[in-house]
Amino acid sequence: MTLAPLDFSPLAWVLLGLAAALVGISKTALPGINTISIAIFAALLPAKASTGALLLLLIVGDVFALISYRREADWRALVRLVPFAAIGLALGAAFLAFAEDNWVRRLIGTILLCLIAVTLWQRFRGRGSAPASSRAAVAGRAGFGALGGFTTMVANAGGPVMSMYFLSARLPVKTFLGTAAWFFAVINLVKLPISIGLGLFTPATLQLDLLLIPCVVVGAFIGRWIAARIRQQAFEWAVIAGTALGALYLLLR
């Protein structure tokens, strides 16, 4: 199966446009819902072309996220996460070069469901419990950072993983979005030359992305409108729902 953008049916173009718009919304308002985009791209494009095409659209979305929330990031959290994410990226690149990814997608989906369960348990347990020890906090950063780097390299699915980490930190909406914006902007730019080396991009991929970029832009502005109006609790539950959707997609794909 080869990628030929001009051969897509009208319905396929509608779905791809929707997927691109959801990338923009996920970057500026609702992290996690871009798992719908991953599913649509995977259904309509060959595996490698799907990963490459979506990465370029994610980078466009990163630009709008940074424009919107560049001053809102928790820099302390970012500095602590990046080294572990780099380790995860390296492992993901090695995996893409040598292994099949179906069973790993299912493993990632299972891990995400476990993370959701832990997050919900912590919320319903109440506020009276003791804070995590510094050693546990470091272990959590290492685990989330490495898993986030690995999943974003293998399946562009790092958003749900990192959303759970930022959610557990109880970040306000804009701080959450700003921290995620800088994290994925750096990670996706690092992924770009690795992905080129793995042969994930073709002229047809670039042609498709040029046609879909306007949809990402529209989605980013819709997301900014949503983020300015959404309440903290609604935002947090939307993140959990998006993460659950991503986990189920990875399990069932």
Automatic annotation (TrEMBL):
<feature type="transmembrane region" description="Helical">
    <location>
        <begin position="234"/>
        <end position="252"/>
    </location>
</feature>
<protein>
    <recommendedName>
        <fullName>Probable membrane transporter protein</fullName>
    </recommendedName>
</protein>
<comment type="similarity">
    <text>Belongs to the 4-toluene sulfonate uptake permease (TSUP) (TC 2.A.102) family.</text>
</comment>
<keyword id="KW-0472">Membrane</keyword>
<keyword id="KW-0813">Transport</keyword>
<feature type="transmembrane region" description="Helical">
    <location>
        <begin position="77"/>
        <end position="97"/>
    </location>
</feature>
<feature type="transmembrane region" description="Helical">
    <location>
        <begin position="179"/>
        <end position="201"/>
    </location>
</feature>
<dbReference type="InterPro" id="IPR002781">
    <property type="entry name" value="TM_pro_TauE-like"/>
</dbReference>
<keyword id="KW-1133">Transmembrane helix</keyword>
<dbReference type="Pfam" id="PF01925">
    <property type="entry name" value="TauE"/>
</dbReference>
<feature type="transmembrane region" description="Helical">
    <location>
        <begin position="142"/>
        <end position="167"/>
    </location>
</feature>
<keyword id="KW-0812">Transmembrane</keyword>
<dbReference type="InterPro" id="IPR052017">
    <property type="entry name" value="TSUP"/>
</dbReference>
<feature type="transmembrane region" description="Helical">
    <location>
        <begin position="103"/>
        <end position="121"/>
    </location>
</feature>
<keyword id="KW-1003">Cell membrane</keyword>
<feature type="transmembrane region" description="Helical">
    <location>
        <begin position="36"/>
        <end position="65"/>
    </location>
</feature>
<feature type="transmembrane region" description="Helical">
    <location>
        <begin position="208"/>
        <end position="228"/>
    </location>
</feature>
